[in-house]
Design brief:
This is LA2681-like HEPN domain-containing protein. Pfam families: HEPN_LA2681 (PF18733). The chain has 509 residues and is mainly alpha-helical. Helices cover 57% and strands 5% of the residues. The longest helix is centred in the C-terminal third of the chain and has 36 residues.
Length: 509
């Protein structure tokens, strides 16, 4: 099968003719192509063509939106793009990359994964600062994102000004672009709905002034030590603060990194029973575990030891294989992955209680909460969370986030997240088997299944990826609860509201 632009035209033709059989035939042909023997640019076209075909097929299939297939093919395409040197990317290629990034960001936003979507909207604008569609979709994403934020109200005001700025710049650029009039009308309606009238009545220069005024700088460096400053700068640059704005502050010149700290918490909660303290306590524990893992990761990455750690001296650990690494540093690295992974089942435990799934505690896991529940031998009831209810962006985001860590369907299909394809296996080995961290994994070294070998660099990459996914999961969980609490306030107007208390850090000593 020839992988070229004519292929994309054939897909468009089958879509216009509503030929479902033709689309399925194209998918079958494309999935049988040996991608390894293709040049990089043709690989990008192959994966993009597969995504387009699944996207069109979803329009005629009410049972499946094929999000997993589409996300997987986007990621394969992006992996190839990121392997290209910038010198290999010409103007046409740059346009194609922006188009792929935009479609990927939009599908992430539709899945409720605003944090990850924001990252790709920003990448597009770094490649093409005059990309009208990216500015408009980014603005819509930000407006929806503010609905579930639990941050200082002035921060939300700043985001609204920033979204309005994106809208106004895009509308001005659209006058000189080829964007369709119908699309502009659609975004104009969104602008009028999402942006307050008092902001819409302002001119662009006034909005830019208000944006600067709305940004509050926080004195979060408590003891002004250089070590703390370096640590927080690393956290901010890697988007690891438990703060929904971290992605925005890190890559957007209008914002300051000083906005970032760990402020993620539930809003006021309707008191339906005596479990309110339980919800806060288990969420606090999950946050603290994440914060601990984050610090361990920082220490692993930044420690440059000339001599062994004093805790490793005189331990009489001996190995004839100089490729294997034993040290406290390696144990820290193992713990980052192991602990971050374990928080997911605590999230599932929380959801089971809070959303009243009534699953037996021993059956609760991040996989099981999304699955049908078998009550009797031949009786199956759908989990109320199956595939994430569409009216709760937080739960939708959490479902798709968990798909990156675990294969929910237990089938042999391609993993949604390419970096964590064997996360379950890695965790099981770390927890229950012998794991050797090595400088380099030798060919066929894992075939005998007695010892699991993994390179230090690979485990670092997986642990960092796991940390970032856990951060997103906690933000999604917080959003899901906040959206649910908004409903409960309407349904239980006579119940007491329990507000959040703010504590200083000194009580932790």
């Amino acid at each position: 099968m020839e992988i070229n632009i004519r292929l994309l035209k054939r897909i468009d033709s089958e879509k216009r003719n509503k030929n479902v059989g033709g689309l399925k035939k194209i998918i079958s042909e494309l999935e049988n192509v040996d991608a390894e023997n293709l040049k990089n640019k043709k690989k990008i076209i192959l994966y993009y063509a597969l995504e387009c075909t699944y996207s069109f097929l979803s329009e005629y299939n009410k049972e499946d939106d094929f999000y997993d297939k589409r996300i997987n093919n986007f990621r394969k395409s992006i992996k190839v793009i990121e392997s290209l040197g910038s010198y290999k990317i010409d103007r046409d290629m740059n346009h194609q990359i922006c188009h792929i990034y935009l479609k990927y960001a939009n599908i992430l936003d539709n899945c409720g994964r605003s944090n990850l979507a924001i990252e790709y909207y920003q990448k597009i604008l770094e490649l093409d600062s005059r990309n009208v569609n990216a500015k408009l979709d980014y603005a819509v994403c930000l407006c929806q994102y503010t609905w579930t934020m639990t941050v200082v109200s002035k921060n939300i005001e700043a985001i609204k000004y920033f979204a309005a700025k994106l809208f106004m710049e895009a509308f001005e650029m659209a006058k000189f672009s080829t964007i369709k009039e119908g699309n502009i009308k659609y975004y104009t309606e969104g602008y009028n709905k999402l942006i307050d009238k008092k902001i819409r009545d302002m001119k662009l220069d006034e909005i830019e002034t208000r944006l600067i005024q709305a940004i509050i700088l926080f004195d979060h460096i408590t003891n002004n030590s250089n070590a703390e400053y370096v640590y927080r700068k690393w956290v901010s640059e890697n988007c690891l603060f438990l703060h929904p704005l971290n992605e925005i502050t890190t890559r957007t010149k209008e914002f300051s990194e000083d906005l970032c700290f760990d402020i993620l918490h539930f809003k006021s909660m309707v008191k339906l029973d005596e479990l309110n303290p339980f919800y806060r306590e288990i969420f606090n524990e999950m946050k603290q575990t994440f914060i601990y893992c984050r610090l361990l990761m920082y220490e692993v990455i930044t420690e440059e030891l000339v001599d062994p750690h004093y805790g490793d001296l005189n331990t009489f650990i001996f190995s004839e294989d100089t490729n294997i690494k034993y040290s406290i540093k390696m144990e820290k690295l193992k713990n980052v992955f192991r602990l971050a992974y374990s928080v997911y089942d605590k999230i599932a435990f929380f959801i089971n209680v809070y959303f009243e799934l009534n699953m037996a505690e021993k059956r609760v896991s991040i996989k099981s909460i999304w699955k049908p529940i078998r009550e009797k031998l031949n009786s199956v009831s759908r989990s109320p969370l199956l595939h994430g209810p569409s009216d709760n962006r937080g739960l939708n985001g959490l479902y798709w986030n968990s798909r990156d860590v675990h294969n929910i369907n237990d089938d042999n299909e391609d993993p949604v997240d390419l970096e964590l394809a064997d996360a379950d296996h890695t965790r099981n080995c770390l927890e229950h088997r012998h794991v050797s961290i090595v400088n380099k994994v030798l060919p066929n070294s894992n075939d005998q299944n007695k010892i699991y070998y993994i390179s230090e660099e690979e485990l670092k990459q997986k642990s960092m990826r796991m940390l970032k996914l856990l951060r997103e999961a906690l933000i999604c969980l917080c959003s899901a609860v906040n959206l649910e609490e908004d409903k409960r306030k309407d349904n239980y107007k006579d119940n007491d509201i329990v507000n959040v208390s703010v504590y200083k850090d000194e009580w932790k000593i």
